[in-house]
Each structure stands twice: as structure tokens, then as C-alpha cells.
Design brief:
The complex is a heterodimer of chains A (220) and B (335).
Chain A lengths: L4 H40 L8 H14 L4 H7 L1 H8 L5 H25 L3 H9 L4 H12 L1 H19 L10 H9 L5 H30 L2
Helix pairs in contact in A: 1-2, 1-5, 1-8, 1-9, 4-5, 5-8, 8-10, 9-10
Chain B lengths: L5 E10 L2 E11 L4 E5 L6 H8 L7 E6 L2 E2 L5 H9 L1 E4 L11 H11 L4 H14 L15 H13 L5 E5 L7 H18 L2 E6 L2 H7 L2 E6 L2 E7 H6 L4 H11 L5 H10 L3 E8 L4 H11 L3 E12 L2 E11 L3 H11 L2 E4 L1
Parallel strand pairs in B: 3-8, 3-9, 6-7, 7-8
Antiparallel strand pairs in B: 1-2, 1-4, 4-5, 9-10, 11-13, 11-14, 12-13
The chains are: A mainly alpha (220), B alpha/beta (335).
Amino acid sequence: MGTNWDTLRPLLFDSIGQTLWMVAATLVVGGFLGLLLGIALYSTRPGGILANRPVHTVLNVAVNIIRPIPFIIFITAIGPVTIAVVGTQLGTAAATFALIAAATFGISRIVEQNLVTIDPGVIEAARAMGASPLRIITSLLVPEALGPLILGYTFVFVAVVDMSAVAGAIGGGGLGDFAIVYGYQRFNWAVTGVAVAIIIVLVQLAQFTGNRLARRVMRR
Amino acid sequence: MTAPLIEFRGVGKTFGGVTALDRVDLTIDAGEIYAVIGHSGAGKSTLVRLVNALERPTSGTVLVDGVDITDLPERRLRQVRLGIGMVFQQFNLLRSRTVFGNVAYPLKVAGWNKADREKRVAELLNFVGIADRAWHYPDQLSGGQKQRVGIARALATNPRILLADESTSALDPETTGEVLRLLRRVNREFGVTIVVITHEMEVVREIADRVAVLQDGRVIEQGPVRTVFAEPREPTTKKFVETVLRARPDPGDLERIRERHPGRLVVARVSDDRRVGGVLSDALGRYDVRFEIVHGGVKELGSTSFGSLTLELTGADVDKLIADLRAATDVEELT
């Protein structure tokens, strides 16, 4: 059975575009929200610069509830919220919203874990200089943990590419959907192979860039 | 008599039921170098952090420059902290910033403009002798260099008080000396009052004017360094003094000394006003005695010196010499 690449090629390009769009939007918006949530988790923990046990407990429990939900279930379960925000629970925009929501919680943990590695002595030094918590957050936490954070976000990129493959479940398209609909369901291994190859290249490029950036920031 | 710059009145601090400090009374005067010595866990680090309110006391009052900082709101405390520099055992430099960036950081916090910051940082780096490393990162510096940056950073906003928390404990002896001399200069040239936290009596000897000995959260002894060295009262203080003066040979030393020196052994305290050398010189002419110095040493302490010598005495008139020595200083015979 031959593969009709003339019909498939535009569909493939659309899929690549959809994947890139979903991943980019998730990384930018979810990355930012996750950073804020991660900083909140870190700062409110006992002994933190904005130590607040009730707030920390609420955030912590929320993250622990959302994060373990498998994305294929999450993307459908969040449907009502998606409709309220995006107006529909189908399509690329709806899938992107679900991706951003899930990524925010996942990223927050990665951010928190990287901030924990900052030497508490450095934060104490800043406090001793009279720095306010807000200043410590903006001028110290992120720069001091930047190297590990870049590696963390690189890891997130790969995870988001993985999650975006599920978007097809709600008609979001993307490379994962393409591979399943035109490859798997039509027993066309060549199509699946092409989709997989593109994803591998995408991931390799991201990992390579992330590693280089991190090394540069950490000066090693 | 002017009011003290820092005053602790019956200060206590507990951490979850564990007492770190217990009814501590201290006064530190403007312009002095005040050392707090104690073993690890004695409460030194807690004590120093009460001065800039990184920790709050559980009971009692802490006054800085006449202001009760015990219950000051965090926002007001930030103002107080601008006038108190702090250096740390592990330096606590920002790894993501250069030497210049680290020293400029507190100036940014204090709201200095860029031109003033640059001028001040250059001044400070020159003062601590590290101007040629301005664009290096902390990871590229030696321990001594890092502490110089730490000191420059702590001095950036012209504080009246400098807190040095084990500031030389991570350094080798030679670098320790350099850093201590630098702190001395900070005190003399800028009149900055320095609170030195340490577990090494050598540090106290080298730079402090007055010292408090902390044990189990309580100040067990305090006074001018010279007095504490000369007349230590508490066992812990005596042990600290011994670490510097090596006053008498420990049992292992004594055994080795005995093997080579069969004569009578006496330990004589030496200081400027106790003329041990004179007594010995006179004895050589008058008595049938010989002496050998087998242990001990003499150290400078501010403008005076003191220490102790262990002497091996031989000859027919040893008793007479010992009597003369006793008249001049404290003498202990080792049996």
C-alpha cells in the first residue's frame, strides 16, 4: 500500500504547526504561571521568606491533587472550565488551555525543587542587608537558581510535547493526533515513523539548546 | 559615659522548647571590637542574629543605638539593617553575580543611583584589596578573597555596626590573619563597631577589646580581653585561654618532656609586669643552678604580652630559685 504524501504533506505541516503552537503557548503562559506558583510554594513554606502555613498547605494540596491526574483524563475532566474560558471544549485552543493548566501545576513543583537548592545563607545575607521579600524574590531567587531552572524548563518542554500528543482526544490536532489518525489507525507505519522522527528532532533541539544555555549560565 | 551602642537586657530565646539563650545581659560600646566566644551550640549565632533582628528574642529587650528593636515591624527593621553589616562563615555571596555585583547589591537595596553605586563599589574594592577581581564570579575566588568581598559588601552602606559570624572559621591560618587585620582596619579607620562571633580564642586575642564567654546560652564570663586572659575564672574560659597560651604541657607532652629532662619541672607565668627573665638571669650568678626551657610560649595581647614557660631546673640551689620565682610570679611545680 503506497502512501499518498501529496495529500498528507499539508496535513503534516498543519500538525507540526499545531504542536509548536500548543507547546510554545504552554511554555510561555504555563511557564510563567508555574514560576509564580512555584515561588509561592517555596516562599510560604515554614522558615521561608513569606512563611505562611495555611497558604502553603492550600497550595501544596492543590498541586498534589492536580498533578497526578493522567493528562488524557485531565484534558476531558477540565471541560467545563475550558468551555467557560475558551468558549468550547474542542479544538487546538481548548487543548492548549488544558495544557497550560496542567503544566502550571507540574512546573510549579520543578520551580520549587530548584529554588530549594539555593543556599539559605545567601537569602539570610540579603535579609541582613535590609532586602524586602519581594526584592529577594525578583533579584535573588530566580538569578541564583537560573541554571537548574533552565534545565527544569527543558525537561518541561519534552513533557509538554508528550502531553500535546493527547490533544487529539478533544480534536486539538498536532503531531500525536496525526500519527494516530493517519499512521496507527490506517496501519501505515511510514506515517507514524515520520511523525515520531519529527518529534525526536524537536526534542533533541530543545534539549541541546537547554543544555547549552544552562551551561553558559552556570559557567561550567 | 555614653549610652552603649548595642544592649541586651535579660534576653532569652527558645526554639520549640529548646533554650538557645538564657537571660543574656550585654553592653557593647561604640567603636569597640567585642568578641563572643563559645563552643558550637552555645548560642553564639543566635545571639548575633538578635542584633539585626534576623531572629527575635523570646524574652527580654535588644536595643541598638538606643532604639528598642525587639518589637519593631519588619518594614522598620529593614531600615535598621541598612546600618548593620554582616559577614558570614560561608561568605554567602551571590553566585550569579560578579564581585562588583555582589558589593553593589546592598547599595541597590538601599536605593543608591548607578553612578554613586559604581563609585562606592570601586572605593570598597580598593579598600579590601580586590579591585583586580571586580569582574570575577565568586566561584573563581579563593576563600580569603571571597571573605574580602563579603566584608566590602557588608561595609557598602557605611554601617556603624559590623557583625562577623565565624568570619574566619572556613579559612586557613594565614588567610585568617589577613582577614582579621582587615577587620582591625575597618574598626580603626572607619570607627565601625564590630561584634565578632568565634570559637577560636586566637581570634579573640588577635582583634578583640572585650570578650564574653557563652556556654549553654548563658554569658558565664565577660570583660576586657586582657583581664580574661590574665585571670580566667570559669573552667570553660580557662580552657579557651589554654588553647592560645598552651600554659602547661598536657599529659602527653609531659611524658615526652620527662623522658629527656630528669630535673625538676616548674611552670612559670610570664607577663610584662612579672620579671621571670630577670629572676633567672640573677640566679645564674648567685646560685648553683641551671635551667632549660622545655615548653610554653609568650604571646602579644594588645600592647602587652604574656604566656607561660615550663622550665627544667637542675643544680644544688633549685629550691632557692623556685622561691625567687614564686616571689615574682605564679609558679606551679609539675610532679
